[in-house]
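User: I've been going back and forth on whether these two constructs are worth ordering. Before I decide, could you fold them both?

Assistant: Sure. I'll take them in the order you sent them. The first construct and its structure tokens:
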Amino acid sequence: MSSDEQVYVEIIQTLRTVCEQYRAQIISWSTFRATMFEAKTSLGDLGGSSMRQLMIWATDSLELLEFALAGDELFEETLNVIAEIEARIWE
């Protein structure tokens, strides 16, 4: 496995973990959001257009939600973003 492939696998594992932790309310919105943006940046450095496009969509969606919603509404709508990420990563 090349170093790029290893980094890619680590990013996917991180995404899986952070999505599970946010859903279980173990981590905060800010931690979740920061991890998603880090993943987008890291994937952009590696290539892989479909995953990069997914992360661009996800981070754009999170930004919109952050400015439009708060509290339980923000949490619930973020779960929809998580569901889409999980469906596309683990399809």
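The second construct, handled the same way:
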Amino acid sequence: MAGDDRTRSVPRRILWITVGILIGVVAGLVLGWQIAPAFVLIYFCVGWAAKQGQKQKREIDIYREQWLNKRRMRNDGMQSPPE
């Protein structure tokens, strides 16, 4: 269900945001506060891109599985009976 997916993703999002803030603070302390926002932005952009890639891969895998099942069903009807 859609509601279940959202409730499962809330702790993951909180963790994702917390890690982003932590990266910003550490980058600010180590490299300087001017560079810290760039590190946080890079962290969130890479995370977003990875999530989009996983989503696209999942959709492609589903499509391939459906295509393969259709092909198998078509081929089952065309085969000659065993001798």
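Notes on the second construct follow. The CA atoms of residues 44 and 67 lie 35 Å apart. The chain has a mean pLDDT of 85.
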